[in-house]
Amino acid sequence: MLHWLGFQFEHLWGPIRLLQSHLVLCTLGALLAAVGSFLVMRHWLGTLPCDRGREHAAESVKSIGKPTGAGALFIPVTVLVALLVAPWDPYRAVILLGVLLAMGAGFLDDCSPDAWGRLSKGLIDLFISMGVAWAMIGGESRMEIWLPFFAPKMGQEALLDGTAGMLAPILCEPWLYGLMATALLWFSINTTNCTDGVDGLSGSLLSVAFLGLGGVLYGVVGHVDSAHYLLVPFYEDGASWAVIVATTLGTLAAYLWFNAYPSQLLMGDAGSRALGLLLGVFVLATGNPFLLLVVALLILTNGGTGLFKVGFKKFLSIRVFDGIRCPLHDHVRVNWGWSNTQVLVRFVIMQAVMAPMLIVILLKVR
Description:
The chain has 366 residues and is mainly α. The chain has 15 helices and 2 strands. A two-stranded antiparallel ribbon has the order 1-2. The protein is globular, with a radius of gyration of 21 Å. The relative contact order is 0.15.
């Protein structure tokens, strides 16, 4: 809406044209989401259900009784601010609706006296992922992705189709892209959910991941000159997605204010599932699915070990990671004696160091 206002009323007051700037919209989105989420959580904290503790999780008894499901408070703020500051796109609105559905399903689980079964939650995540994947396709007849380590088009072919000096994208059939996107979104939702278990950990790791994705969306694939220089495709809506990334970062800043150790509230499944979905969506928006490994390696390692351990044992009767307690943050607390603060700081340091290095490798090694 604000972007539209900048175009409609710039002739009435010159400075309003600043609303056409994606950088200004990023700033406004982050600020509005941070302030709005902070006020909503402070005012409505007492209405949240109490945490019942996670089965088999280390130190879960310490969380019992704390307000949980805070995602039901800050995710609607994120969606509303995103609709306000980001340029309008109907498919993007459908995706944000999917985020609300993921939040709603997670909040119902948070409110339930007994935790929902893994199969029930997995199927709900699957259906939501399928709907969001369809919206990401957006009616296109071919979906374009790009992969690392591929050389750009050269010679006569590149001159004829105007792609000289640019990375040759891979064009996927919508059904194939939909399958890949669904799997990525489902995995992102569940690894993020498994990472939520230490005060400040999930929110901090997501913040680092979103910072990297926001930089790629705004400064690389969303910037025509940078895209040409780095030999990656240029996406016109890249900067618009960066506005939503910035909005989500503002929300996470407000949440971490309350979730810093010792936490006053927990995001619950209402927050972790919706934020995990957004993580996958932002990765798909860059056009390179491998960026999930690059920007969220610690999230995938921390939560993914448990998914693979349970999946292999349940469906293939194969035991893997027997010597590892899952999620990984429980292993280092119980087996290595790390404190919650050490887990938080060390995990964030590892992701903050690895993510920029891997992004540079992804973009520069051709």
